[in-house]
C-alpha cells in the first residue's frame, strides 16, 4: 500500500526541493528550515540576559531598561537577531515561507521560563498587523507563532487589539520618531474586558521594544494584570 502523503511530498520535492531558508542550500528533511551549517550558527539566548526585558547582557545595567519605561512585566526572546535568524525571519515575513512558525514556536517552548509562562498566564495574543498590510501579505507571521504556542500550551488565542494606523516600517526611524510613529497606532477593540488577565504577547523581532511596549500599554489599559512579551528574536 503506497503512502500517498510520502508520494505527494516527493513529487513536491521534485519541483520544489527543500532548501535552507537562510542560505538556500539544499536540505534533506522537508521539515527542516535550516541546513546543518546554519543551525550551528544559531544563537539561542539561554543565559546572561536582563531579568526584565531579556536583552543579552554585556554589563550589569541594562541599556534598554534604563532608556525606556517598559510597561510589560517580562520579555524574552528565543534567539539573537543575526544570521541565520535574520534571513529566516525575512523569508517568513515577506516570502510566504510559513514553516518558521513551528521552528520559532518550538524554540520559545525551550526558553528557561517557558513552563512558568505556560502555567501562569491566561491568554496568548500577537502584535496585530494593519488590515491593509494583512491583505497584502496574506498572513501575520507573529500570529502564526502565537497560535502554535497557544495550541502547545493549551491557552486560548485572542485578538483584543487592533492596529488602526498602517505605521510605516520602523527600521529607518530613530527612537523618538518610532515613539511618535507608534503613538496611538494600537487600540483595544470594542467591548473587550481583560480585567485581571495575564497575557502573553508574541512578536517576531524585539528591536527597541517600542512596538511591544505600545501593545502592552493597550492591554493593561484594558485591564490586563500582567503582560509577558515573547519574540522569535532580539536585536542587539
Ligand atoms: Zn543554510
Ligand atoms: Zn533590560
Defining traits:
binds zinc ion, 236 residues, single chain, two-stranded antiparallel ribbon, Rossmann fold, alpha/beta, 38% helix, 2 domains
Q: What can you see in these coordinates?
A:
The chain folds into 2 domains: 1-41, no CATH class; 43-234, Rossmann fold. The radius of gyration is 18 Å and the shape is globular. With 236 residues, it is of the alpha/beta class. The mean pLDDT is 89. The chain contains 10 helices and 6 strands, in the order H-H-H-E-H-H-H-E-H-H-E-H-E-E-H-E. The strands form 2 sheets. It has a 4-stranded parallel beta sheet, sandwiched between helices. Strands 3-4 form a two-stranded antiparallel sheet. One zinc ion binds next to helix 3.
Short structural summary:
This protein is an alpha/beta fold and 236 residues long.
Using the coordinates above, name the CATH class of the largest domain.
Alpha Beta
Oligomer designation: single chain
What number of structural domains do the residues give? 2
**Percent of residues in helical segments?**
25-40%
| Strand/helix succession | HHHEHHHEHHEHEEHE
- Residue share in β-strands: 5-15%
Provide the structure class: alpha/beta
Q: Mean pLDDT, as a whole number?
A: 89
Bound heterogens, unique: zinc ion
From the 3D coordinates, which CATH architecture of the largest domain would you assign?
A: 3-Layer(aba) Sandwich
Amino acid at each position: 500500500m503506497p503512502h500517498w502523503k510520502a508520494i505527494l511530498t516527493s513529487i513536491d520535492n521534485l519541483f520544489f526541493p527543500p532548501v535552507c531558508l537562510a542560505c538556500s542550500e539544499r536540505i534533506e528533511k522537508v521539515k527542516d528550515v535550516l541546513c546543518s551549517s546554519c543551525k550551528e550558527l544559531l544563537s539561542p539566548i539561554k543565559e546572561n540576559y536582563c531579568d526584565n526585558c531579556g536583552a543579552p547582557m554585556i554589563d550589569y545595567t541594562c541599556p534598554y531598561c534604563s532608556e525606556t519605561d517598559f510597561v510589560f512585566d517580562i520579555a524574552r526572546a528565543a534567539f539573537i537577531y543575526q544570521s541565520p535568524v535574520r534571513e529566516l525571519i525575512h523569508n517568513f515575513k515577506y516570502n510566504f515561507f510559513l514553516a518558521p512558525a513551528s521552528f520559532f514556536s518550538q524554540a520559545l517552548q525551550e526558553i528557561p521560563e517557558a513552563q512558568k509562562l505556560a502555567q501562569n498566564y491566561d491568554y496568548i495574543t500577537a502584535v496585530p498587523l494593519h488590515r491593509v498590510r494583512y491583505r497584502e501579505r496574506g498572513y501575520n507571521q507573529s500570529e502564526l507563532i502565537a497560535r502554535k504556542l497557544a495550541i502547545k500550551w493549551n491557552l486560548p488565542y485572542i485578538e483584543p487589539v487592533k492596529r488602526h494606523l498602517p505605521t510605516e516600517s520602523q527600521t529607518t526611524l530613530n527612537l523618538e520618531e518610532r515613539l511618535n510613529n507608534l503613538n496611538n497606532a494600537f487600540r483595544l477593540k470594542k467591548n473587550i474586558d481583560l480585567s485581571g488577565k495575564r497575557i502573553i504577547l508574541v512578536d517576531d523581532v524585539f528591536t527597541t521594544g517600542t512596538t511591544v511596549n505600545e501593545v502592552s500599554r493597550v492591554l493593561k489599559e484594558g485591564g490586563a494584570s500582567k503582560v509577558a512579551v515573547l519574540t522569535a528574536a532580539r536585536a542587539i
